[in-house]
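Let us practice reading a record.
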Amino acid sequence: MIRWIALGALAAGAAQADIRAAEYLEPTGAYGHYVVPGGEYAQLSFELDDGARLTTKAEAGVYEDTAPRLVDIDGDGSPEVISVFSYFNAGPAIRIWDETDGQISLLAEGDPIGTRFRWLAIIGAADLDGDGQIEIAYVDRPHLAKTLRVVRVDGDSVTEVANFSGVTNHRIGEPDIAGGIRDCSDGPEMILASASWSELLAITFDGSFQATVIGADTSRPAFADAMTC
């Protein structure tokens, strides 16, 4: 169920326009988790292709992430925005935003983890299993639970499809998220590290997970090489 949303500084003159870019603004220490240096924000800003800029102001939490992601989730030819919002009391949840008649609206939101000072690190979004629907993949608590979760937008909710334990994509204090989703002509693969950071993995999903060890180097250059096939 969608919760506590504040929309501010909305552009006047509602006209159909696509989201061209999005960014987090106004770094804040109001939450104080600090697992991502400088990664907590009080605003999320959208730029439309007609030049309008729209902004959402965080309430009851902060945006806790490295960057918002633009993906056409519903297949309408224009991108939605994937963000991570951390509630002060309930921790992080995925939020999906869309543009309607010149204004930004919250399309869907997942359930928060339930505990403050936990985090989820987005891997990416793609049609992972070839069924024509876009899945979102993330690591749930990359420093603790180290669980890959695949979810889909279902109405105004974000619903889990499957999960796979024993992987990660972030260490406390790193400014970025390692890996992502690549497609080297054989379909989407999620590039992650094993829970111990001892193996570099390529993981596919076709209703079940298949993990392949592609190296022992889990440095950022090794991740970058893996992402370029």
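A brief commentary: The mean pLDDT is 93.
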